[in-house]
């Protein structure tokens, strides 16, 4: 079975990685959104739900079995070890789900895997290349505030600071898409799309 090339797309909150993935999807390329898929799995995967309850206790789900996202966030926000333990049960289930999804994309030239956290291509993640979507900090803050107007600048900065740094992201990049409102976004993506098609046919 010939699996398609696997291209990772990552970037910090407010960088516009979801917008970049929407363009790839419009070009006919399948996109796996790890963050939204992880949310679905926490609600519907019985094995994962049991693992999360084991790590966090019975309050992780309400009486109807719905994920108590706000409560979980409050527990892990100030406890890095608890967050690490939670990620330790969620990430393996997402990886397995990703592998299953990729196996269903046979015949596609390549696929996109979007995630907020990503390793370099070839670092145990089955990725062939990694795209990092980059934007200036002030622009990211502005975008986040437009999307979540209830958040203060300080809250937004705190969220950004808890994420992987731009420098760390750029170190794993095979390609960088600049989403800075100075360079046109679409031509950058089209160039990458054409390059990935050439790679697949080589």
UniProtKB/TrEMBL annotation:
It is found in: Cytoplasm. One of its GO terms (biological process) is coenzyme A biosynthetic process. Signal peptide: none annotated. Gene3D superfamilies: P-loop containing nucleotide triphosphate hydrolases (3.40.50.300). It catalyses: 3'-dephospho-CoA + ATP = ADP + CoA + H(+). It is an enzyme of class 2 (transferase). ATP binds at residues 14-19. Transmembrane segments: none annotated. GO terms for cellular component: cytoplasm. Its main location: cytoplasm. Pathway: Cofactor biosynthesis; coenzyme A biosynthesis; CoA from (R)-pantothenate: step 5/5. Keywords: ATP-binding, Coenzyme A biosynthesis, Cytoplasm, Kinase, Nucleotide-binding, Transferase. InterPro entries: Depp_CoAkinase, P-loop_NTPase. Its EC number is 2.7.1.24. GO terms for molecular function: ATP binding; dephospho-CoA kinase activity. PANTHER family: BIFUNCTIONAL COENZYME A SYNTHASE-RELATED, DEPHOSPHO-COA KINASE-RELATED. NCBIfam families: dephospho-CoA kinase. This is Dephospho-CoA kinase. The gene is coaE.
């Amino acid at each position: 079975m010939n699996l398609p090339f696997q291209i990772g797309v990552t970037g910090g909150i407010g960088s516009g990685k979801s917008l970049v993935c929407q363009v790839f999807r419009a070009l006919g390329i399948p996109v796996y959104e790890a963050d939204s898929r992880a949310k679905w799995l926490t609600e519907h995967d019985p094995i994962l739900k049991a693992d999360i309850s084991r790590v966090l206790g019975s309050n992780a789900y309400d009486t109807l079995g719905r994920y108590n996202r706000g409560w979980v966030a409050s527990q892990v926000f100030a406890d890095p070890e608890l967050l690490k333990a939670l990620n330790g049960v969620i990430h393996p289930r997402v990886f397995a789900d990703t592998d299953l999804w990729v196996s269903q994309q046979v015949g596609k030239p390549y696929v996109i895997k979007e995630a907020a956290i990503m390793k370099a291509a070839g670092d145990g993640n089955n990725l062939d290349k990694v795209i990092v979507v980059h934007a200036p900090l002030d622009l990211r803050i502005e975008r986040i505030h437009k999307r979540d107007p209830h958040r203060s600048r300080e809250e937004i900065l705190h969220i950004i600071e808890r994420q992987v740094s731009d420098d760390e992201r750029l170190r794993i990049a095979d390609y960088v898409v600049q989403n800075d409102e100075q360079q046109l976004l679409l031509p950058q993506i089209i160039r990458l799309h054409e390059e990935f098609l050439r790679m697949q046919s080589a």
